[in-house]
Structure formats: C-alpha cells, structure tokens
C-alpha cells in the first residue's frame, strides 16, 4: 500500500491538471480583477505570481541548456535523458498546490488582501526569520527525510535524479511540498502578524526562494571562485550549484537550503565543496570523440531545441498552432544567431564511454539556396571543422545541407583546402544510401529516381543496376546521365534509363525522391506508390492513396546514455542516417575522410558495420 501523501491526487489528469486553476481564473475574469478597485484583484495577483514563478524555473532551465555559453562550467557532464525528462514532466505540481494554499490563506485572512505595496521593516523581519527559523528547520527536516523509511517512501524520488536541472527542484512528493510550504510561510506570516506585511514581500519572498532553488539545481557553476577566496565568510552564506550537486552524489552531506552555515554547525559539510566549486567555476572542456554538425531547417523548427523547451525537444518535431505565436521571438533569436555567427553546441550524449556532441551552424535552411550566402556558410562550416581539429575531435559528420554538392562538393572543399586535417570529415551518405536501399522490397524490378545524378542518386542507381533493377533516372542532363552510366559495369548499363518527365513513371509504384516533389509532380504516381526519400525538407504527404517513407534514419545502440533530444521529426533514440554514418566511422576507427562521391563498393560494408555496433534500422 502506498504511504499517504506520496503521490499527487491529479496524476491521472495529465496536462488537464491546469484546469484546477480555472476557478481562480473564472473569479478573476468575472470580477475584472485587473482593475485596481476590484475586490477580486487578489485572484489576479495569485495567478500572476504563479506565472512568474513558473517563468523563473523555465528561465534557469533555458540557461542550463545554453551549452554554447556555459558548457565549460557544467558540473555533472552527462546529458539529460528521456527517462529523466518524462519523470520531471509534471515538475510544476507543487506550484498548483501552493497556489491553492495561498488562495485559502487569503480567503481565511481577508486583511491580507489589502496589504500596502511595500514596507522595508517587514522585509527585514522576514529575512531575519528566514535565517533564524526557515533555514535551520529545513536542515532538520531534510535530515529527517534521509532516514530509512521516510527516504524510501518520500525523498528517494528526488534523489533518483543524478543530472540536476532547475525542474528537479519541483520533483517531490506532496508531503515534502506541504512541509516546505509551511517553512516558506513562517517569515511572511510573522511579518504580516506584526503588521509589517506588504504585497512586495509576498511576491518577492516567493520569487527569491524559487530563484535560489532553481539556481542550486541548474548544474552550472555560476559563482566565480575568487569571490570565496576574497570573502571566506561568503562560503557559509550562499549555497552554490556545485554545493547542492554534491548532496546528490553524497546524500549524507550538504543538507542546507541556501546557507551552508547550518551544515557547518551540524557537522555535515562536505570537505571538498569549495575545492570542487573552484574547479567548476574555472571551467574546462571535455573533448568529444565525435561531432555532428547540424543546421536549422526553418524558423519554426528552430524552436525545437533544448534551449527553447526540453519537453518539445524530447518529442518528434511537429508544427503546432501555439508555436506560430512564438514565431516573432524565434525570428529575433535567428537574427541574434546571425550576429553571433558561431557554431553552437546544442546537446551531447555518451556512447561506449565516449562523448558525442551535436553542434549547429547558425543558418536556416533557406540560406543554403541563396547564391550570395554560399561563401559565408562554407566559412562557418570550415571554422567548425578547424575548431574540431584543434580540439582533438576524431570525426566530424556533416548534416544534410552542410554537405550539399553545390555548396562544397560533399565536404571535398575542406579536405582539399586543409590536407593536414587530423579530424576525419564525413558526409555519412554511404550509410544513408544503404538505409534507402534496404527499404526497397526484395523482388522490385523497377524504380523511379529523382535527383538521379546527385551524390546519393548516383550511388543508388549504380547499386540497383548491379542488382538487375531497372532505374528510371529523371535528369535533364544527357551528359551527367552518361557519366553515371559509364561507371556501371558494361552488363548492367542497360538497366539505367534516362527519362525527362514525371509521366514516364506513371506505372511505377516505387519512387525514390532525391529532389523535392510538388503535389503536381506526385499526381503522376499510380495508386499504391511508396515514396522513399532523401530530400530536405521532406516532401509533403499529398497523396492519400500512396505511402511515404521518412528520411533515412537509424536507431542508436541501446547503450547510448544521456540522449534526450529528438532529431527533427524522428522518434526518440533515432538519428538521421548521415549522423549514424559518422558514428559508425568513429566506432570503426576508419582512417580516411568520407567526402565527395560515394564508393558504391562500401555500401554493404558500412551497413554491416552499423549492425555490428548495435545500430538498427528505424
């Protein structure tokens, strides 16, 4: 039987739990609470406080995921995985509970609704009582929660998280939140009882409490080491993120709320706290073995990032109506990224004990099709490659548009310009071709291929003709077609057929799209056609009587750790085939670059290597 107050009574409501706030919202709207003279103004202020408190945690969450800004000062250098994100999905349950506790207090004591705006004496009393009562009482409560039965029944949930995030502060049982709420009320209630309360005190104390709690859980050291060297007493007055993180690695030390003074007095101060704090504040880089150099597809998808929302980022990207309202904000961030003009580290994970990172070139998809942007984009990609080379990265894999043939020849430009590169530049298209080819059913006699003379199209055509599959290659260039045909074995060349119109494929049910297909192009496909594709962005699913494949992708091995981001529209744990191709290149320890034209003879070799390392078709 579950112990009392160990789970939230509205757990089964999911996101509908916010309807619990509806009565207060209805009362606020009905009473025109935003007007200064409204008797229901307190409802509006409580809801405003609820929003500001949630925004405080979310702001710290954004900060903690700004790896391009703070990766050197990250404390626990592991990624936040899907399991942790799901566990903390309803981290704000405590805000709903405390909203109603505050509403009941204001209902029980009407005088609290008419407090003055500010009283400095009340703030001084509250601060004094926080130090004299809330801090030591929290310390004693926290130590009590670490006793055997209380820990296993209640507090173990909070300690199940190793990589702290601001949202982890809210991962607690109702019993713990009720106890913390009581401690939070002590300083404010005492000031109000003495006639020194104010609206600013109610708001300010709650927001300051949340600010410090979120900071302590942010997993990024924000205090400079020199501060505690210059003012040694400050060590016992403010708990740093490092200080609180130690409690999650050594749960029998560092119990304090915000002031390590009480750990010192109680004999539970971890002796390495300041040494580790100084080390983390100084910052250091952990060199990744592998880097995937990605790019943003469009302004809307730029909001599908951990920095924006780790919850949305942990699910496959979908265009949602409410995101349209955020488009202007995303556009401003896009301009800021242009101004910054650097490659950003956006997330990382571990595989076989090595660090894998994803960097993003701050350019959106449409930039790659602007002729005047070509040199600037190549310069940024080149800078990222040289940076990876200087750091000691083993392999850097280029995402779809970053290796565009017309942009840099599939990465050939950089390898030719810098022949001494130690980092291996990989386009990953060998595995992409293998994934697409494995999707084609056995026994297929004929396919229709667009983008037929591109890097991938060429490799697919040459591979299939060797298997005696007739390939209708859509291309306007006779010269480029003949060049591909000449690469095929003499006995297989007859299986490569040049076509110039979509009508030529009106009886073929296997289409491989390497070039974007408009609804008008798709109408020539017969009913029952399956569209395979390797085009970015993906083609629109226009035909209801046809089926559409996703972009070539593979599922990472089961032993991947710390992965909590979905790559664009792909599912959890699935990455684009070019990303997976770079992973295989790294795991196999291949010495050469993989740039330019695809070696058709290596398609099966790379595929078998991928399966051997635990990657699976998605």
TrEMBL record:
Residue ranges of domain Very-long-chain aldehyde decarbonylase CER1-like C-terminal in the record: 447-617
The answer on whether this UniProt entry bears the keyword Lyase reads: yes
Keyword vocabulary terms for this entry: Endoplasmic reticulum, Lyase, Membrane, NADP, Transmembrane, Transmembrane helix
Q: Which SUPFAM superfamilies match?
A: NAD(P)-binding Rossmann-fold domains
Gene3D superfamilies in alphabetical order: NAD(P)-binding Rossmann-like Domain (3.40.50.720)
Keyword Oxidoreductase applies: no
Please give the start and end residues of each transmembrane region: 44-68, 89-110, 122-142, 163-182, 188-208, 322-340
How does the record classify its membrane topology?
A: Multi-pass membrane protein
Q: List cellular component terms (GO).
A: endoplasmic reticulum membrane
Q: Which Pfam families match?
A: CER1-like_C, FA_hydroxylase
InterPro entries named among the record's database cross-references:
CER1-like_C, Fatty_acid_hydroxylase, NAD(P)-bd_dom_sf, Sterol_Desaturase_Related
Question: Could you mention a single GO BP entry for this protein?
Answer: lipid biosynthetic process
* Single annotated GO MF: iron ion binding
Compartments where found = Endoplasmic reticulum membrane
**Which reactions appear under catalytic activity for this entry?**
a long-chain fatty aldehyde + 2 NADPH + O2 + H(+) = a long-chain alkane + formate + 2 NADP(+) + H2O
Q: Which residues form the Fatty acid hydroxylase domain?
A: 128-268
Under Enzyme Commission nomenclature, its number is 4.1.99.5
What is the superkingdom listed in this entry's lineage? Eukaryota
Q: What is its main location?
A: endoplasmic reticulum
Q: Which PANTHER family match?
A: STEROL DESATURASE (PTHR11863)
Q: Which family does it belong to?
A: Belongs to the sterol desaturase family.
Q: What is this protein called?
A: aldehyde oxygenase (deformylating)
- Organism in which the protein naturally occurs: Setaria viridis
